[in-house]
């Protein structure tokens, strides 16, 4: 009976796939782990979060708080993009579900980027894109970001926003 329940839940999760971007490649399967890896913040990540909050202040919006469990999801997805050399929102629905279940999120959004060398350049690129700016200026309460440099020297970024 437990196997049937697990199978049913798994099928329901697979059938309810959604993405924050129409460019999502759901055919790529990103392994999800129960081991939460929450690395120490890099200076570029600290700078990105500060720039986003500075922008929100200028727009008259409340600042966002860091929530460590989000970092586990930004890190795993950024690492996945580095390993596959592919910038995507692959498996966003799984990250969103994880944060809804484990962090009490009501809503989740995600920005990804590739190739920018500074915090300023990646945040400016997001702000110059209507959909990415929408996430930055959205009705969220918490956020986190991961920046990882691939062996090719390029930086990959995942920025997740959560409303609790």
TrEMBL record:
- Signal peptide start and end residues: 1-21
Q: Which residues does the UniProt record annotate as the domain SCP? A: 49-156
Identification of the protein by name = CAP domain-containing protein
Keyword Signal present in the record's keywords: the answer is yes
Coiled-coil positions: none
Cited InterPro entries: CAP_dom (IPR014044), CAP_sf (IPR035940)
Presence of keyword Signal: yes
Q: Which UniProt keyword terms apply here? A: Signal
The protein's matches in Pfam families, at most eight in alphabetical order, are given as:
CAP
- List the source organism: Oceanihabitans sediminis
Q: SUPFAM superfamilies under this entry? A: PR-1-like (SSF55797)
Q: Which domain of life is it from?
A: Bacteria
Q: Which residues cross the membrane?
A: none
């Amino acid at each position: 009976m437990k196997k049937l329940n697990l199978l049913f839940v798994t099928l329901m999760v697979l059938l309810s796939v959604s993405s924050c971007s129409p460019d999502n490649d759901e055919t790529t399967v990103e392994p999800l782990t129960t081991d939460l890896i929450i690395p120490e913040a890099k200076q570029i990540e600290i700078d990105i979060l500060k720039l986003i909050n500075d922008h929100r202040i200028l727009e008259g919006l409340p600042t966002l708080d860091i929530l460590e469990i989000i970092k586990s999801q930004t890190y795993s997805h950024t690492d996945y993009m580095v390993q596959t050399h592919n910038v995507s929102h692959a498996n966003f629905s799984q990250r969103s579900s994880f944060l809804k279940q484990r962090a009490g999120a009501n809503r989740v959004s995600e920005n990804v980027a590739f190739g920018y060398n500074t915090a300023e350049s990646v945040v400016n690129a997001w702000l110059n894109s209507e959909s990415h700016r929408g996430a930055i200026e959205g009705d969220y309460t918490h956020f986190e970001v991961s920046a990882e440099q691939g062996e090719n020297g390029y930086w990959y970024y995942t920025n997740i926003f959560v409303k609790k």
